[in-house]
Amino acid sequence: MLLMSACSEEATNTQEPASTDSGKPMASAAATAASTVGDGKMTDVGTPRNQTLIVDILSGKTADPDLVNPYVPGAVPMDAGFHQLIFSSLWEINTEKGEQIPDLAATFPEPLDNTNTKFKFKLQEGLAWSDGVEFTADDVVYTSDMIIKTKELGYSGYYASLVKSMKALDKYTIEVETVNPETRLAQKLGVVIWGTAFRVMPKHIWEKEDPTKFKFKDPVGLGPYTLKSRDPQGNWFLYEKRKDWQKSDIGKIVGEPGAQYILFKFFGPEEKRIIASIQHDMDILQDITPESWDVLRQKNKTALAWYENFPYADMNDPCERGMSFNASKAPYNNKDVRWAMALMTDIKNVSLATFGGMLRVSPIQLPPISVLQEKYHKPMLGWLKDFQLSDGYKPFDESYATDMVEMLKQQGIKGLPTDTKEAVNTFGVGWYKYDPAEAGKLLEKAGFKKQGDKWLKPDGTPWKVTINAPANFEVQSMRLAFAVADSWKKNGIDANVQQMDGATFWDSESTGAFEVGSYWPACGLLPDSTANFQGWHKQYIVDNGKQAPGNRNRWANDKVSSLIDELASMQSSDPKVISHITEINKEFVKGMPFIPMFGTSKFVPVDTYYWTGFQTSKNAFEGPWWWWSQFKYYTPHFKPTGK
């Protein structure tokens, strides 16, 4: 009702003028809408609308829009265009093929001997930084040395444990020596899902600065766009196609991007974002609710989701959502407590409350994307059904998929799976029983007592839980937090949700400033998901209050760490890789440091009024990962419609 009201009132509302970096106001939205170039509408940042691709910002408003240094503490708004359009990686990922591809590098690391500690690789020739300076091996070597030597940088500890040194053999050839034998150097220094922590910086600029204090406000990159202007309040960033786009990574590898300008803009709460799309003021929406999609598809006939029909959303996002524990804080340092909270989660109703049931469940530490379901989830079914808790209780329930089909049928949903196999492919292999009685037994074993309908902790104080959650971004995790809190409240836990902006949310996870969080530390895209498990090694655990280079759950498991060490010496093609990762998943089930719940379903619609060429299930040259670094690879596909 509020959304419909807002739609009808929008014409009478006016916006305050946006500001440029200089602080001078730009023309108001109403004024610029009336301005024309020929018969074309102008954007509220002064660019021709039919030359400007407008993209929603997944993480919302940026706290410090001037901070673009990816190595200092604080949240750089990477998904606001920086790692999609300006920063580039040595190796990128093709999610459709499930394999890495060269980007700044021209080749993959080649072992120089049989120790797997010395490698060389070639760089692309003919690339230039956006200020015109040639890109060479010196930039990569400088970045490596800077990270190793500057121990104050949060990434330094991890990187120094991986890379001993880099040196330039010539202008376009780099030799790498690693601390230990490495068989997946490209995975660890390149992109395997969202982006990478190793970002090459321009030596000719950075060598004059203190990397611990340098904001890099005016970033110089190797991507196809440059930052033209930004909102001092952090609501938008405007990028312009480089005149020398041929010397960018995308210009060399793919071709010319279609849009002259790309505007990443946060419009505000979800209802305003939907209104913007209905009015053709946004081309790519990021992360909306199923209810909003229902409104959008009725009001905007040029809007497209991934599928034309149920479930509409793409279910193959390679990160899964759930509840993370800080395992260094009592009582969450006790696996019986963590398991009790899993059994207090009414997963079917949580699915309905979170995303209308349009979610694929996952009982293990890898997302239930199609390729990983076949490699891990389905082969582990026998073990999951036999798995017992310390008291002999078997918690696994394989009926989730068929139960969800029946529940959604009762709601009148059409196009549902008609057999068990199809249901499992859509909704997942199963999850854990909703059993508050068994949960109570585990809590009593841990020293908890129930007073009336509320649980008391072992020290006699009321059990209160605060769940950290995103505020108006990553909507599935945001809504999941409230649905889980409701389930826990019904079972005697005083659970509340604390919503946070992007910077605070991520900083709290990194520094351990949380008990429970609606985070997503379980990701994977390749069958060899070694790189995704690497951060769970116990060597990355730090005290609360310090920035964690990995293992932000602060969960120490000797077997997991040992298996990760063994994986490091194996080639990806080794059959033992799958069995080792399966064993790691079993340890996560036993310890439950993170309650895996659902693969991520993304309602990230596009509007085809001004632009065409977007990927969908019928044009699946890639998934709809608008917030990933590989976004720049999509840009040559986007073509103006002529409107």
TrEMBL record:
Domain (Solute-binding protein family): residue spans on this chain: 101-518
InterPro entries: Peptide/Ni-bd, SBP_5, SBP_5_dom
Range of residues in the leader sequence: none
Gene3D superfamilies per UniProt: Dipeptide-binding Protein, Domain 1, Dipeptide-binding Protein, Domain 3, Periplasmic binding protein-like II
Composition skew (Polar residues), residue ranges: 10-22
Residue ranges of the TM segments: none
Skewed-composition ranges (Low complexity): 27-36
Superkingdom of this protein's organism: Bacteria
Chain positions covered by the region annotation Disordered: 1-45
Record's protein name: ABC transporter substrate-binding protein
